[in-house]
Amino acid sequence: MKIIPFAVSSRFNEQQYEQGAQWLLQNRCEILSNPILRIGLETYLNGSDEERLRELQRACSEERADAIWAVRGGYGMTRLLPMLKDCEPVAPIVGFSDTTALMMHFWALHGLKSLHAPLITQLSEESAESSQALLLALNGQARDVAYPSLSLRKTYLKDRIRGTLLAANLSMLVELLGTRSMPSLCGTILVLEDVGEKPYRLDRMLTHLWAAGALKGIQAIVLGYLTDCGDEPFKVFEERCQSFEIPLLTGLPVGHEQPNWPVPIGVEAEIQLQSHRGTLKVLEEVFPSRLLFRC
Fold it and tell me: In this predicted model, what pLDDT tens digit does every residue of 87-104 receive, in sequence order?
């Protein structure tokens, strides 16, 4: 598998990048180029908008790439989205956090499937189980990933929920409202995670999505980690989803903690329900079969 890294959000730690690059090399990946560490606006951006846009455009147009993989998240992606003109990636995007804005953008405009997964700087920190799940997804075997059991927060009369699987950082998703980068959520199973948001802010963002009509026709919300989000943030989702009459499941190990399991974006999936438990099952692939072992 040929990887093109890109670092167009916040600045990254070079040692963490090298550790992640070693993980990729050890798992039969080829790195086509290395990202550039720059000094950006007050150092919270990895370069100017123009520099970061050029790097992103180069990564998206690299015809040898099998995957376009984010080095780090943080902040900065939404500054670039309005400037992306006639840019359609040649390969799936891999990453999460700030990168989910980019993945939602390309799904909305081009129907590009992506993979919500650890950033390159985090790969060496993953557990053996989540690393194996990531390798399966990269190798066109996401349908074989056995996700941990989910908890259904309210009785649901049907035995399964089916829809298009999307995964995003809640804050990033709300920032896309009213822009061309916001995808339709109708008919989707939406995986959400976030970090550092107080319960009232989670409430406000969910209410904003609902009031804007973005949650109309959604099949279910599945929660990953709500890291450093105050006391009992899951109760906010439980109350809001009950009010919106949206099935809510929790317990997916996805987001700003380890392990961070891979979740395909833009594929059909279903949640098989039994009593108050649910099992997520991916039904389609993002990557071709056995891509890691391609000569």
Answer: 999 999 999 999 999 999
H helix intervals, 49-198: 49-60, 77-80, 99-110, 128-138, 170-175
Catalytic: which of 62, 193, 197, 270?
193
Indicate if 97 belongs to the active site. Answer: yes
SS3 state at 224? strand
- How many Cβ atoms are within 10 Å of 24's Cβ, its own excluded? 19
Q: Tell me which of 9, 10, 62, 97 is the catalytic residue.
A: 97
pLDDT score at 289: 82
The torsion angles phi and psi of 231, rounded to 5 degrees, stand at -80, 125
- The angle at the Cα of 140, spanning 281 to 273, to the nearest 5 degrees, equals 0
Report whether 121 contacts 138 (CB < 8 A): no
Q: Is 110 a catalytic residue?
A: no
Residues 237-275 as b/e (b if ≥16 CB within 10 A, e otherwise) read bbebbeebebbbbbbbbbbbeebbbbbbbbbebbbebee
Span 165-206, pLDDT tens digits: 999 999 999 999 999 999 999 999 999 999 999 999 999 999
Q: Is 162 left (phi over 0), alpha (psi -120 to 50) or beta?
A: beta
Q: Who's near 216: CB < 8 A, 6+ residues apart?
A: 185, 186
pLDDT < 70 regions, the chain:
40-41, 290-295
Domains of the chain are 2-142 (3.40.50.10740), 144-282 (3.50.30.60)
225, 257 in Cβ contact below 8 A?
Answer: yes
Candidates 96, 260, 114; CA nearest to 170 is 96
pLDDT for the residue 293: 56
Residue 138 sits at φ, ψ, to 5 deg, of -65, -25
